[in-house]
Amino acid sequence: MTYLRERADGISVSLSIHVQPKSSRTRIAGLHGDAVKLCITSPPVDGKANAAVIQFFAKLFKIPKAAVTIASGETSRDKRIILAGISAPQAEAVLQPLLIA
Hints:
Distance between the termini: 16 Å
Number of strands: 6
Number of domains: 1
CATH topology: Conserved Hypothetical Protein Mth637, Chain: A
Number of helices: 2
Shape: globular
Strand content: 25-35%
Largest sheet: 6 strands, mixed
Helix content: 25-40%
C-alpha cells in the first residue's frame, strides 16, 4: 500500500497517482508501479486534467472538491494528492475494490 500514506495530522491522506489523459472513460485502472492509475477523458491542456482529477476523487470519496489538493506534479502525469478529512483505512476501503477489479 505504498500509494497511500496517512499524514501526520491523522485526518488526511496522501495518495500517489499516475494520470492517463484523453482516455475513453474516466476510471481507476489498477496500479501503475507504486501509484494508482487514473484514466481521465480530459486533455492535459489549461489545467483541465488537474480539474478532472480533483473532481473525480472528490466524488469518489464523497468529500468537497476543496478537500482535494494536488501537492506535487501539477504538470506531470505522476501526481501526489492530499485528501483532507479522510483516514487511511477509510481511503483504503474505497480504493481496494477498484484496484482488484
